[in-house]
Amino acid sequence: MRMLLGMLVAWLGWSTAHAADVYLESRRLGFEKIPVVVLPFSGSAGQEQARLVETILQADLARSHLFEIVDLQKTFPPDTPPGRVASLSGALVAVSALLSADGEKRVLSGFAHEAAQAEPAVGVKLSGDAQSIRQIAHRFADKLVSHFTGEPGVAQTKIAYVSDQTGKKEVYMMDYDGANETRLTGDRSIVVSPRWSHDAEALTYTSYRSGNPDVYLLNMNTAQRKVLIAYPGINLSPSWLPSGEQMVFSSTKTGDAEIYTMRPDGGGLKRLTFSDANDLSPSWAPSGRQIAFTSDRGGSPQIYVMDADGSNVRRLTFSGVYNTSPAWSPKGDRVAYACRNDEKRLKICLIDAAGQGMAQITDNGSYDDESPSWAPSGQDIVFASNRMGKGQIFSIHADGTSLIRLTASDANHTAPAWSPR
What is the rounded distance in angstroms from the CA atom of residue 5 to the CA atom of residue 134? Predict the structure, then answer.
């Protein structure tokens, strides 16, 4: 039966099958992306805005790594059913939409037809103001990803990062594709290590605005800010337990850098590490049962893993003399980190949770790649690199393909953090 299904999926006549069922099974059997053709969008909002939504949607689907965009090779009569267009174009799905205007309001009526099917498999109506065109397109893309793959889309996620474009380091935020850059802080000081809360409702970061490097929490809904961690010494922004009940952070409050957990309200402080070395950059596993961190307790910075209560410490990386900044994948099966190669340059590496299968995913070159952060889909990683001279933010597929530059200005952009949703 499985062999028969594999033959059917590979057969060019598969267009009469139901796209979602076939695609999900083909994923389990190791097949490739789902072919989709995007028909020209139209509507009363005008061709320019309709074309913008169409372009953004195509880019979102391509960046998901789950779809293959099929070029529309010829013009079909206006009354040709979308499912028929999909079949004739060699696609499994045809996407169409109308973008209407009502004053400042924009309404997108979007549809997805499976090949040779008369009724749409997906039909949505999404609205917003004229300034939210990009978000409308992202929402439509996420609906399609979710329906046809069973996976949540990431087109509506955000990336926080640090930039010095005002002359001082501040926290900024942008869409996952680099658009809509927004400055979030005005500390006019040194700001480092932004981190998202478990639900993306808050952002923590370390700032020297009061003289001491303290951790602040910024409410993303109200823009209110409060001091979260203010021990004497250096306090670095925490990683949140996926449930939101605790945070893990590093502080030099006792002299060297040690790792602590605490509740978001500031209570329940617990010290986890007691070595004479510096223990930094803790990252909570999605399961909440383990914490990865950087330590030089073996003589050079390496990645270690411990249980959430500080017990059962084990070294994860043994290749190379300098490995830092661990970040758990959303499924908890891999850890991304910055690894120093033989040319003494930092690159982005991956290793599985058992300490096996180490792989460098960014190319060698006379530049540094650092500060990896996973997309919530586990498909991509965002990181900072000075390969263009000054620091810029890039994303890359977890297999080392599809490198995309996200920031464009001449400022230094560093320390990216991908929101969990």
Answer: 38
Name every residue whose Cβ is closer than 8 Å to that of residue 85 and which is 6 or more positions away in sequence.
Answer: 37, 39, 72, 76, 94
The Cβ of residue 379 has, within 10 Å, a number of other Cβ atoms equal to 20
Read off the pLDDT of residues 133-177 as tens digits, 9 standing for 90 and up: 999 999 999 999 999 988 889 999 999 999 999 999 999 999 999
Helical segments of 150-287, H only: none
Q: In which residue are the tokens 């789902």 written?
A: 34
Distance CA 137, CA 125 (A): 11
Tokens of 289: 């049962």
pLDDT digits (tens, 9 = 90+) for 98-109: 999 989 999 999
Check which CATH number belongs to the domain holding 134 and give it.
3.40.50.10070
Smallest Cα–Cα separation from 360: which of 343, 251, 17? 343
Same domain, 63 and 164: no
Question: What Å distances lie between residue 263 and 24, 238, 241, 245, 375, CA to CA?
Answer: 40, 11, 10, 6, 25
3-state SS class at 4: helix
Boundary of a domain, candidates 149, 183, 202: 149
Give the separation between CA 2 and CA 244, rounded to whole angstroms.
Answer: 42
> Are 139 and 264 in the same domain?
no
Span 24-41, pLDDT tens digits: 444 433 447 899 999 999
Give the residue carrying structure tokens 């992202």.
138
Cα–Cα–Cα angle for 232, 236, 237, rounded to 5 degrees: 130
Which distant-in-sequence residues (6+ apart) come within 8 Å of 213 by Cβ? 190, 192, 206, 207, 233, 234, 235, 236
**101 and 10 both lie in a single domain:** yes
Q: What total of structural domains would you count in the chain?
A: 2
* 272 and 332, same domain (yes or no): yes
**Phi and psi, residue 104, nearest 5°:** -85, -10
